[in-house]
Structures are given as structure tokens and as C-alpha cells.
Amino acid sequence: MAESRWTQSMLLDFYGELLTEKQRECFDLHYNEDLSLSEIAEQLGISRQGVWDNIRRAESAMLEFEEKTGLIRRAERTKRALETIRKQAEEIGTLTRGRAHDIARDILDEIEGLEE
Asked: Does CATH number 3.90.930.1 belong to domain 5-69?
């Protein structure tokens, strides 16, 4: 999995509750709030090294969780599959009338409900 800000944010969204409060807070402040290690250290009253250690431990733990569970990978696959189904249902809706058109619309409504 590529180590981008998006990836870090997804890791925190999926696995953040499994971290210690300090790990979660340091990780969130660094990746989501874009604070420097010094800024986080000052805000939390700990050393820069303490912040760095918490971020690295959090990242390591969350990557291990993802490796074991694959939740983010599955969510990404599901999202891509829903987008494909959406496009196909939209096409069916434009090509048909009557009951087939209504079913295509129902499918699109269901997909929309899943994405909320």
C-alpha cells in the first residue's frame, strides 16, 4: 500500500480506535492536521522524539492490522465495483423503458444509499 496522506488517513479511519490515545492523537495531528513534530510536542507536552515514536508505532500497528484484515483493500475493491455497477445501471436506464428502466433506477438508488 502506498504511503500517501490519503493512505495514512484511511489507516486512521479504519484502525485508529485500536491505537492508544496518544498514538492516535499524534498520528492525527501530524497527518490530518499537518502539524510538525515540534508543534505536536509543544501541544501535547512531550518531546519531539516521543511524538515521532508514537507516530511510527501507530503506523506500524495499523499497517499490521491492514495486512491481517485487508479491510481497506476490500473497501477500495467494493467502491470500484459499485462504480462499475452504477455506470452499467445508468446505461441500462438510458437504453430501456418500463420495468427495466425502473429496476435500473432502483439499483442506482440502492448504490446511492450504500455510499452515504
From this structure: no
